[in-house]
C-alpha cells in the first residue's frame, strides 16, 4: 500500500472562532495518518518499539491553499518518500469534496533510541529500501532548517503539563502550535489565517519543564520555544493579509 487515505468531516472542536479548520488540528490528523500508514507497512510505532526505537517528527512544511470549514467533508492522504541517511520523508495532501487540493505538506522524521534518545540511521533499523516508497510530491523540497531572526523578544513561558504529553512521554508536537498562538498578540492571533508554515522540532520537552516563548513579527511571524537557552521548537508563519 503506497499511500493511505481517509475521508472525514471537520468537527466543531477542530475549528477556530471563525469556523475554520485549525492548523493545530491538521497537525494532529497528520500524526495519526502517518502512524496508521507506517503501521500497515510494518514500521509503525509498535513494531519499532519492539526494537527499542521510535519515530520522532523533526521538520514540517505546510501550505494551506484554503482552510476547510466546519462540517465540510475532506479526503486526507499520506505516503512516504523513502529516506536519506537520518531523515525519513513523508508527504500529505487534503482535498475537498470537489477534488480540489486545500492542504499540502511535507515532513521529515528521525528514528531515536527510546531510552537513550540517540539518533539512529534509518537504514540500520529498516534496511536500505523499506517497502511502500512513493516518490510523488505534495511539496517537492524537504522542509527547511529554520534560522531564528535576531530581533526576537520574550513573550511568555509555559510549564509543560500532563495534558501536553503524548504517548512517548514528551510534549506532543501539535501543542507547540497552540503555545505559539497564545504567545502572539491577541489581535494578531485572532485575525490570522495561516497560508503557509514551517516547523522545526529541535528537542523534546518533558513534564513540569519551563519553556520560554520568544516571538518576532518582522519581517515575518516567527516563534521559538527555549528551555535553558536551548531551542525546543521553531515556527515560521506566512499568513494572508488579515494577519
Structure description:
With 243 residues, the protein is α+β, with helices and mostly antiparallel strands. Helices cover 19% and strands 39% of the residues. It has helices spanning 23-41, 45-50, 122-126, 173-183, 186-191, and strands at residues 4-9, 53-64, 73-84, 87-96, 101-113, 119-120, 153-159, 194-201, 210-216, 221-227, 230-239. Strands 1, 2, 3, 4, 5, 6, 7, 8, 9, 10 and 11 form an 11-stranded antiparallel beta sheet that branches. Helix 1 packs antiparallel against helix 4 (173-183).
Q: What's the helix count?
A: 5
Q: Choose one word for the global shape.
A: globular
Average pLDDT, rounded to a whole number, is 93
Give, in order, the helices and strands.
EHHEEEEEHEHHEEEE
Q: What is the count of distinct domains?
A: 2
Strand count, sense and barrel status of the largest sheet are:
11 strands, antiparallel
Which terms would index this structure?
single chain; 243 residues; alpha+beta; Thiol Ester Dehydrase, Chain A; 2 domains; 11-stranded antiparallel β-sheet; 5 helices; 11 strands
Amino acid at each position: 500500500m503506497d499511500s493511505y487515505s481517509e475521508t472525514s468531516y471537520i468537527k466543531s472542536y477542530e475549528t477556530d472562532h471563525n469556523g475554520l479548520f485549525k492548523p493545530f488540528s491538521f497537525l494532529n490528523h497528520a500524526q495519526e495518518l502517518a502512524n496508521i500508514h507506517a503501521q500497515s507497512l510494518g514500521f509503525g510505532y509498535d513494531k519499532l518499539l519492539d526494537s527499542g526505537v521510535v519515530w520522532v517528527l523533526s521538520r514540517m512544511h505546510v501550505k494551506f491553499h484554503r482552510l476547510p470549514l466546519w462540517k465540510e467533508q475532506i479526503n486526507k492522504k499520506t505516503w512516504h518518500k523513502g529516506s536519506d541517511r537520518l531523515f525519513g520523508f513523508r508527504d500529505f495532501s487534503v482535498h475537498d469534496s470537489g477534488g480540489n487540493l486545500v492542504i499540502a505538506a511535507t515532513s521529515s522524521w528521525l528514528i531515536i533510541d527510546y531510552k537513550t534518545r540517540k539518533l539512529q540511521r534509518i537504514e540500520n533499523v529498516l534496511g536500505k529500501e523499506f517497502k511502500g516508497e512513493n516518490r510523488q510530491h505534495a511539496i517537492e523540497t524537504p522542509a527547511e532548517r529554520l534560522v531564528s531572526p535576531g530581533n526576537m523578544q520574550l513573550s511568555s513561558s509555559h510549564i509543560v503539563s500532563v495534558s501536553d504529553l503524548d504517548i512517548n512521554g514528551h510534549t506532543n508536537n501539535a501543542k507547540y502550535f497552540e503555545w505559539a498562538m497564545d504567545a502572539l498578540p491577541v489581535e494578531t492571533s485572532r485575525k490570522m489565517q495561516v497560508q503557509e508554515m514551517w516547523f522545526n522540532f529541535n528537542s523534546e520537552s518533558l513534564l513540569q519543564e519551563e519553556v520560554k516563548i520568544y516571538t518576532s513579527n518582522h519581517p515575518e511571524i516567527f516563534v521559538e520555544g527555549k528551555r535553558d537557552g536551548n531551542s525546543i521548537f521553531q515556527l515560521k508563519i506566512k499568513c494572508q493579509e488579515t494577519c
